[in-house]
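Form 7-S
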Amino acid sequence: MSRFVLYCGGEGAVRPEEAAQTSRDAGAKVIATGTGTVVVEARPAQIKLISSRLPGWSYTLERREVRKPTPPRRKAA
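Output:
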C-alpha cells in the first residue's frame, strides 16, 4: 500500500470529512485530514475508485520524506 494525498480542486467539491468517509468506505486507511486535503493509505486501484467518487478532488502520490536533523557542530574550545 502507498500513501496518497487527495486535494480539493475547486468549488462544488465535497468537504474533507465527506472525502475521508468515502475513502474509508472504499477500504482505504485515512491517515490525516486538513483544510482541503486528506492523506490516505491505499492501493492504486482503491485510490482511482475513490477519486472517481469525489468530484472536484484530485490525488497525488505522497513523496514527503522525513529526515532526522543533524545536531549542530560544537566549536573547539
